[in-house]
TrEMBL record:
Annotated region (Disordered), positions in chain: 339-377
The ANK repeat ranges on this chain: 99-131
Transmembrane regions listed in the UniProt entry: 21-41
Organism: Neurospora crassa (strain ATCC 24698 / 74-OR23-1A / CBS 708.71 / DSM 1257 / FGSC 987)
Pfam family, one: Ank
UniProt keywords, alphabetically: ANK repeat, Membrane, Repeat, Transmembrane, Transmembrane helix
Annotated SUPFAM superfamilies: Ankyrin repeat
Biased segments, Acidic residues type: 344-353
Protein name: Uncharacterized protein
Amino acid sequence: MRYNITKQSLKVQLTTITSSILPLFNTITSTAIMTVTAHLYHPDFLPACQTGDFEAVTKILNHETPQVSTAQLQDGLTEAVQGGHLAVADVLLSSGASVNRTAIHRAILRGDPATFKVFIKNGWDVNTTEFEEGTALRRSVGNPPLMHFLLTHGNADPNLLSMPPMRGRTRRAASAFTTAIVAEGQPGADAIRALLAHGAELEPNMLHSAIEASCRWRNVPMSKDHACAERVRLLIDAAAAQKIKEGDKEKDKGVQWYLNYLDPKKKGTPLHCAIWWRRLETVQVLVGEGAVVAGSALYRGMTVIQAARRRAEMMDGQGHEEAKRIWEWLTGRRWEDRGREKEEIEDGEDGEESSTLTAEENGAEVAENCACGENTSTGMGRDRPYLGFGALDMKLTLFGHNN
């Protein structure tokens, strides 16, 4: 017999066969997936971890089928840590769960040193830098009992940064000490003292970091200027007390080296920075401790006096009188008597005369040569400075910050 099969008829037959097979295939696949899922996830395991039912958890782990998967162990650890069920967390870790990023995050939120004691008991390295938020010690700033435990029982290193780049960039989370420098109020000061006692290394631009951070402090029981000045005093005292390592020629000038450090990230000296953030008391502390005013390092052509006048002119009419008071204190002149003449122009490092006192058009655009700040074209809100990982990556805006 001869069959006359056309292309169209073959297509119809294939469609019919496919429509008959697919439902059966889908049914088999769904059944297989449900079977595997049931095997991997014991239905009573997570509820037992959530409620801290140690007996039920150990029974499921040791005797029952289906067995608990590694993924479910991790989920169970997260639930146990969040609920503070440390006995359950301990048995999960000994059964194969690991201290991952989520577990650390939940433990930090609880703030209980006992949780980290369980972690350390099960082999967790307190100095791990694998998470982009930084070390556990960095994240414990503001929790004195937890910080003390990590320093004394875990030998936490206050100088470590996080290691992995974030989204292809090389920015890393700040060290615990940098985080303490920018933390507001008494908790920040206490953290600084504790970290210094356990080997924290002073950073060249630590004064800049503290001054910049003061614009974000909201809960200080005093003016931000006074709080900033107190933080600067604490860091200066730390610089005076530090022991210079043999061969560390860069820091052989002691306190003066920090007071007059010209930040290579274009933030000027600490005095430039304090002027920019209108911190009169902080300026007075810096000068009183030996920061150089006359003939000081230029910041893109501006001396300290020139930067003070530029800032006062920018703030004129905006209700920020502190900028004028800083210029008056530095020069010994009244702002109203300043006249319209140009201030003395000092030679830059390259010997060329330069000045940045000329006002920008319409007074709104700021200088690339402004101290301690960047252009407002960053896209950030006028009164919302952006802090990335520590104060060293801050995008600072120029207007609108309350004192």
